[in-house]
Each structure stands twice: as C-alpha cells, then as structure tokens.
C-alpha cells in the first residue's frame, strides 16, 4: 500500500503539523506542499491520496484549481478536502463534486479524519489494482449512468469527445476503451484510426458502443476490427457481462 498523503496547504500551520503528526501515528507519511502549480507538479506523483486544506485564499487561485482538477482526473488521484461550507462551495465552482471523495468540515475532528484517511489509503490500494476503463461518449447522461454501473468493479475515466480521449491516452494506458461509434466532430472510427496509427496507443483494446443493432450497422462496425461492440440499449447486467467476458478471453489468450 502507498502510505503517502499529499497535504496541500497555504503555509505551515499548527493544524497542518497536528494532522501530519496524527497521520504518522497510524503509519501514514505526510508530504506537505503549497497550492502553487510548480510545487504541485513536482509532488503530483508522490502520493495517490491528496488532502487539501482550504482557506479563503482559493478564491484567487483558479488556475491552480483547474490544474488540480486535471491531475485528479487524468491520474486518478483521490481528493479529500478540509474546509467550511463557503470554502467548499467556492472549490466546487472549479473542481467538480464527483472527484471529491471526502469533505472534512471545520472545526476539525482530527481523530475521526485520521480514521477515515486510513480507510481511504486501504481502498486506494485496492482501487488501483482494478482494471482501468476509458469511457468515451458525447452523451453526458449516458456517461454518468454507465460509469455508475462500472464503478463497482473497475476504475473508470470518462470523457465526452474523441479529442479528449486522444489527449487522455497520450499520458495514460487504459486496459480497455469503450468508444462511442457515432460522435460529432471526431467520430469513433476516426478516434480508433488515430490511436492505431501511434505505436504508444496501437495496442489498447477498443470496444465500440453503438446505438444501431441491425445487421448492416453491426457489419460496418466490425469491419474496423475492434475487440467487439456493445449495444447502448443493453442494461447493466448485460454490459458488465460483456466486459467481463472480454477480460476473461484476454486472460485466456495469454496462455
């Protein structure tokens, strides 16, 4: 298990020192950094779990918050925050609530927070051993629905355009891409072609998501030679079954 916690705070305070001390008592290492983009970049890979101590200073740190949001999404960091309601609401204007795992309100119950953080570190270790799926679709409602289904068993990253998918795989290598066949601007076949033309992304397996199940449409999809296709009309159980079958067949092919 990665025992590091990256504490982000504007300056060293008595409270930050107390948090670090209590984390140490339960075997967790604290790495303390300021919310400066350059410093954050130098420490972004030092821990999987972040603890952000908020203050009214974040009101004027939009660029830093955007950077933090992007890092948490692209590198799947587990973001926890400490702050009052005003500060948390201010943060949520830039950092979506969906990537904030825990909010610890002030006045802070350190013992309770340490207990939760210990559980977060354990779940982080289990979480990062899961298979990683990139889900690409321009329908935000569909994205959120399917992500909710997949989150129980997989690490899931969602993007809503082909170019966002290309940007993501330039820095990350998912175990599987679920790719919408029909998207505006950069449709699924074009995204697949771009990925297959690059050595670093050519081996990433792709399963198309398609809303058309007639024979002609299916043949058109399969002609591109993806690892398979899934109809967007299938329910949760069928979708999970098809993905599980893919990973099982992939495992079997290695032997």
Structural descriptors:
alpha/beta, Rossmann fold, 2 domains, five-stranded parallel β-sheet, 10 helices, 44% helix
- By CATH reckoning, the class of the largest domain would read Alpha Beta
Q: Tell me the number of helical segments per DSSP (H or I, 4 or more residues long).
A: 10
- Globally, the shape reads elongated
Class computed from helices, strands and strand pairing: alpha/beta
Task: Point out poorly predicted stretches.
Answer: none
CATH architecture of the largest domain: 3-Layer(aba) Sandwich
* Biggest sheet descriptor: 5 strands, parallel
Give the end-to-end Cα distance, rounded to a whole number of Å: 29 Å
Strands of the widest sheet, in order across it, are 2-1-3-4-5
User: Order of helices and strands, N to C?
Assistant: EHEHEHEHEHEHEHEHEHEH
**What portion of residues is helical?**
40-55%
CATH topology of the largest domain: Rossmann fold
- In CATH, the homologous superfamily of the largest domain goes by the name Response regulator
Tally of discrete structural domains: 2
Number of strands: 10
Provide the gyration radius in Å: 21 Å
* Beta-strand share of residues: 15-25%
On the 0-100 scale, what is the average pLDDT?
A: 88
């Amino acid at each position: 298990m990665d025992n590091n916690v990256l504490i982000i705070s504007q300056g060293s305070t008595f409270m930050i020192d107390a948090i670090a001390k209590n984390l140490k008592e339960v075997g967790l290492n604290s790495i303390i950094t300021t919310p400066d983009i350059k410093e954050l970049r130098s420490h972004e890979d030092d821990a999987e779990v972040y603890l952000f101590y908020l203050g009214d200073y974040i009101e004027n740190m939009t660029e830093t918050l955007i950077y933090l949001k992007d890092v948490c999404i692209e590198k799947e960091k587990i973001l926890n925050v400490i702050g009052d309601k005003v500060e948390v609401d201010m943060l949520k204007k830039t950092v979506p609530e969906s990537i904030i795992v825990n909010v610890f309100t002030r006045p802070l119950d350190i013992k309770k927070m340490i207990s939760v953080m210990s559980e977060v570190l354990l779940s982080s270790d289990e979480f990062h051993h899961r298979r990683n799926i990139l889900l690409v679709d321009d329908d935000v409602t569909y994205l959120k629905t399917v992500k909710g289904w997949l989150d129980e068993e997989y690490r899931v990253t969602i993007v809503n355009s082909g170019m966002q998918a290309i940007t993501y795989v330039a820095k990350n290598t998912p175990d599987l891409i679920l790719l919408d066949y029909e998207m505006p601007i950069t449709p699924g076949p074009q995204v697949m072609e771009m990925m297959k033309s690059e050595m670093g992304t050519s081996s990433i397996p792709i399963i198309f998501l398609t809303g058309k199940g007639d024979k002609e449409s299916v043949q058109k999809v399969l002609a591109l030679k993806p690892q398979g296709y899934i109809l967007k009309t299938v329910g949760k159980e069928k979708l999970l079954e098809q993905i599980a079958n893919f990973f099982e067949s992939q495992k079997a092919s290695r032997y």
